[in-house]
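Sat 14:20. Reprocessing the chain from the morning session after the first attempt stalled halfway. Input below, unchanged.
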Amino acid sequence: MNTEVFLSIHSLVGYWPWLDALMIFFAEDAIYLMAFGFVLFFWWHGTKATHRFFVKSGLVAVGVWAVHWVIKFFTAVPRPFVALNFTPLIAEPAEHAFPSGHAAVAFALAVAVWLALKNKNPHRCIVGGIFMFFAILISFSRVYAGVHWPLDVVAGAILGAVGAYVSLGQSLRR
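Finished this time. Tokens:
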């Protein structure tokens, strides 16, 4: 099923040049835009408590990135372009695919913003929704570009979201 879902998504490559360009942006560069937005968001909410939460969130994102590498080492799942022998839409090393580090970090940042806005419902829906939307698009674009299987990005999203919630949810309860 993983292969079938991948092929149905990746088969869209080449039909619409504008969509290919958009997916290339999200697959390669949007994570940096998301991180920049993350820094701006916490700078804008400039209290001591939010600064501490920002530092913790950054450490969680780094921790999630490190855990994803450990999992990659033990699972050794080949990337789709290696397994199916094609040229991906973006340049990517032929290292292991599972789980997606981009998805893990994107969802860790999105959940951190969502948690930071827990008592601000309209802002949570708008700002948190934008961060979640970016995390979803980043994850989808990695499959579209041919560098991850769907299960890679689902696992990365779960790793990032759960890692952020477990690590940061406690600091909000204090």
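The chain has one domain: 17-173.
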